[in-house]
Amino acid sequence: MFYYGGMTPDLASAGNAEARQAALATLGGQTRELIDAVVLTDVPEDEITAVTAELAALTGRLRTLQRTAPQSFEAGPDGVPRHPGNAVIGSANPHALPLIVESTPERTVRAELAFRPSHEGPPGWVHGGVSAMILDHLLGHAAAVAGSPGMTGTLSVRYRRPVPYGEPLLATAEHTRSEGRKTWVEGRIALPDGTVLVEATGLFITPSGWGRSGPE
Ligand SMILES: CCCCCCCC(=O)SCCNC(=O)CCNC(=O)[C@H](O)C(C)(C)COP(=O)(O)OP(=O)(O)OC[C@H]1O[C@@H](n2cnc3c(N)ncnc32)[C@H](O)[C@@H]1OP(=O)(O)O
C-alpha cells in the first residue's frame, strides 16, 4: 500500500475520513451527471446562461479550500485498494467512470462497464483515447494482481470495431509473462456476447524500490 498524503490529520481519522470520502464520492457522481447533462443539453440559450452563472458560484464555493496534494491511495474498510482521485477508478473524480475492477481466483481481472456520452470521440462512438485509458489501467491492475505492480512502459492498442457508449461492456485482462522487473499483460473490451472491440498489450515496469504492493 502507498499513501500520497494530502488529508489533514483530523480528517484522516477513522469514521470522519470515511464520511468525507462518501461525501466526495457523492459529489463526484453528481458531477458526472452534470457533465453528461451538459454534453446532451438542448435547453434554450437563456437557460444555458443562467445555469452557467449558478455553476460559476458553486465552483467558487469549492475553490475556497483546495487540496495541494493528491488523494490518498489506500485500502478501504473492506480491504480493497482504492484511489478516489484516480482518472479511471476514482469515486471522487468526475472524469472516472468509475471502473470497478474485480480479481478472479485465476488472478485475472474483469470489469463491467458502460461508457458515457461525455466519452464521445467519433460521433456516436467512444473516443479511442478513452478506451486506451481504461485498458491501460486494467492491464496495470492485472500486473499488480499477478504480483508485479508497475508503471506502463508501453501500451499497444488495436481497435477492431467502434465502441458504443451507454451499453453494457466487459473488460478483461491477464498477465502473460514476467522477466525481472518487466511484466507483459494483455486485455480487451468486448460486447457481452464476447465480440472483441478493442484489445491491448502492455509492458509494465516495476520501478526499483517498489514492493509487491506498489511504491514503498
Ligand atoms: C492497480 C493500479 C493500476 C494502475 C495502472 C496505471 C498505469 C499508468 O498509467 S502508469 C503512468 C504511465 N507511465 C509512466 O508514467 C511511466 C513513466 N516512466 C517511468 O517512470 C520509467 O521510465 C519506468 C518506471 C517505466 C522505467 O524506469 P526504470 O525503473 O528506471 O527502468 P530502467 O532501469 O531504465 O529499465 C528497466 C528495464 O525496463 C526496460 N524499459 C524501461 N522503460 C521502458 C519502456 N518505456 N518501454 C520498454 N522497455 C522499457 C529497460 O530497457 C530495462 O530492460 P532490461 O532490464 O532488459 O535492460
Plain-language structure description:
- With 216 residues, this protein is an alpha+beta fold.
- 29% of the residues lie in helices and 25% in strands.
- The chain has three helices and ten strands, in the order ααββββαββββββ.
- The strands form three sheets. Strands 3-4-6-7-8-5 form a six-stranded antiparallel beta sheet, covered by helices on one side. The chain has a two-stranded antiparallel ribbon with strand order 1-2. Strands 9-10 form a two-stranded antiparallel ribbon.
- β3 and β4 form a beta hairpin.
What can be said about this structure in brief?
The protein contains three helices and ten strands; from the N terminus they run H-H-E-E-E-E-H-E-E-E-E-E-E.
Task: Give structural attributes.
216 residues; alpha+beta; Thiol Ester Dehydrase, Chain A; two-stranded antiparallel ribbon; 3 helices; disordered N terminus; binds octanoyl-coenzyme A
Explain the layout of strands and helices.
Elements: H1 14-40, H2 45-62, E1 74-75, E2 81-82, E3 102-103, E4 109-113, H3 128-145, E5 151-159, E6 169-179, E7 182-190, E8 196-205, E9 210-211, E10 214-215
Antiparallel strand pairs: 1-2, 3-4, 4-6, 5-8, 6-7, 7-8, 9-10
The site of octanoyl-coenzyme A has 16 residues, from helix 3, strand 5 and strand 8.
Radius of gyration from the alpha-carbon trace, in angstroms? 19 Å
Number of strands: 10
Taking pLDDT < 50 over at least 5 consecutive residues as the criterion, the unreliable ranges are 1-12
* Strand arrangement in the largest pleated sheet: 3-4-6-7-8-5
Q: How far from one another are the termini?
A: 7 Å
CATH topology of the domain at 99-215: Thiol Ester Dehydrase, Chain A
Oligomer: single chain
Which CATH architecture of the domain at 99-215 would you pick? Roll
List SSEs in N-to-C order. HHEEEEHEEEEEE
Helix content, binned percent: 25-40%
Strand content: 25-35%
**What compounds sit in this structure?**
octanoyl-coenzyme A
> Which structural class matches the secondary elements?
alpha+beta
